[in-house]
Amino acid sequence: MSGLPYETLQSCQVNELMRYLLLGMMLLCAFAASAGMDPHVLKQTIEQRLGVQVYLVDETPMPGLYLLGTAQGLLYSDARGDYVLQGSMLDLAHDMRNLTRLSQQQQRRLALSQIGEARLWLKATPERHRLTLFTDLACGPCRIALEELPRLQARGVSVQLLPAPVAASDQASWCDPGLLRELNFSDRLPESGCNAILAHHIGLSQWLGIKASPSWVLPNGDLVRGYQSPEQLLKILDHINAPANPSSSAS
């Protein structure tokens, strides 16, 4: 099937990325009345000074410090945008709870809930766990991860497959009807409208700041970067479902 020209597909990606940014803009307005500051002004100030797109401004438990969600990751700023911090905010009064990690988890879960039905699912029956895999189809570790997905399925893990930002030469592969034909996907990208769906999904990965491929998003919203064997992933999944859940290495 013939795909859209690369320039057109890139334009679609920008539009889809803006769709997610607009979702974030709704969050910008959530606390404006009570915060005593204008989140839109802070957003514009940071974008002008740092050259990064800000899609979320939110309060933190520390008076005068605000959380900024960007495609480059989470930042913290004062109300005027004069000072910016990058790192983890820990709640020492509550067992050193990592508030930055909790915010990252929440953003990923929110974003993935916006996908809709146009997706690739490798479903397990019975299902014990669910994972989302952001990948491309060219890199060596990505191909190994894709080849091993049936092993996860056999162990009760359903996997949602989404494209990481990929080169123009690789994008058409996602809309090939023969994509991953050896895997038993219960849902496939439709041949009609596939380019728009692909742009939607790539926009999502950009919005989440997915840079490494493959990357896995766990049910709790944690992000695990790089290749993980099925055994490693099962160990992580069992760990996050355990009654006691100490901090893991996922972010």
What is the CATH topology assignment of the largest domain?
Glutaredoxin
Give the CATH superfamily of the largest domain.
Glutaredoxin
Please count the helical segments.
9
Proportion of β residues? 15-25%
* End-to-end separation: 38 Å
Averaged pLDDT, please? 78
Q: What's the multimeric state?
A: single chain
CATH class of the largest domain: Alpha Beta
Structural class of the secondary elements? alpha+beta
Regions with little confidence, pLDDT below 50 for 5+ residues: 1-14, 243-249
Structural Rg: 19 Å
- Specify the helix fraction band: 25-40%
Q: Find the count of extended strands (DSSP E, 2+ residues).
A: 11
Number of spatially distinct domains: 2
Biggest β-sheet: strands ordered side by side in the sheet: 7-9-8-10-11
Named CATH architecture of the largest domain: 3-Layer(aba) Sandwich
**SSE pattern:** HHHEEEEEEHEEHHEHHEEH
Q: What's the story with the biggest beta sheet?
A: 5 strands, mixed
Query: What form results from the Cα inertia axes?
Result: globular
Structure, explained:
With 251 residues, the chain is an alpha+beta fold. It has two domains: 107 residues, Nuclear Transport Factor 2, Chain: A; 121 residues, Glutaredoxin, CATH 3.40.30.10. The strands form three sheets. It has a five-stranded mixed sheet with strand order 7-9-8-10-11. It has a four-stranded antiparallel sheet with strand order 1-2-3-4. The longest helix has 23 residues. The protein is globular, with a radius of gyration of 19 Å. The two termini are 38 Å apart. InterPro entries: DiS-bond_isomerase_DsbC/G_N (IPR018950), DiS-bond_isomerase_DsbC/G_N_sf (IPR009094), Thiol:disulfide_interchange (IPR051470), Thioredoxin-like_sf (IPR036249).
